[in-house]
Design goal:
Rossmann fold, two-stranded antiparallel ribbon, single chain
């Protein structure tokens, strides 16, 4: 069964951060490659050209084998004056999933964002197997109750993909 994975980076990074842990993206790639035999693993995220630490991280992900889909980060000023940074990659993830529709039978989506409900419904309707990994508390109710979708809380495989700082 041909499987593609689509990772909404901000949803996964903030979802695990809220639970007090970080994803080891080397372990995640290995897990998706071995457990689901993923042929392609897309990683959708924002890009801040001034952030050298982020660029080093993306270079590492590329070397590991992720297909990076990066979008420039935009700054938004909120009503209270606070500045937020967003890349809004949801449309990009949906576009690539629809573009590659004929190339996979099963998809692993790492996001609980309710914006993906329409994509997931369509994939299920046309007979694709849909597996979702996300933080249960941050996942839209509409996704958790979708019939035919296999939902998994990220915490359920924390021990497999958690990042641990190496001691010197």
């Amino acid at each position: 069964m041909k499987t593609y994975a689509f990772i909404d980076a901000s949803n996964i990074i903030y979802g695990t951060r809220d639970e007090g842990w970080k994803v080891d993206f080397r372990k995640l790639f290995k897990y998706l490659s071995e457990r689901y035999k993923c042929k392609k693993i897309y990683y959708f995220a924002g890009l801040d050209n001034k952030n050298l630490k982020q660029q080093k991280f993306y270079n590492l992900l590329f070397k590991i084998g992720y297909e990076l889909k990066l979008k420039p980060v935009k700054l938004f000023k909120e009503i209270d004056g606070k500045i937020t940074r967003k890349a809004n990659c949801d449309v990009d993830l949906t576009f690539y999933a629809m573009r590659d529709l004929e190339k996979f039978d099963r998809t692993v989506i790492l996001s609980g964002d309710g914006d993906f409900e329409i994509l997931m419904k369509h994939l299920l309707k046309i007979g694709k197997e849909v597996i979702v990994f996300a933080n249960t508390r941050r996942t839209a109710k509409e996704i958790k109750i979708l019939k035919g979708l296999q939902f998994n809380d990220l915490a359920s495989f924390r021990s497999t993909i958690e990042f641990h700082k190496k001691r010197r």
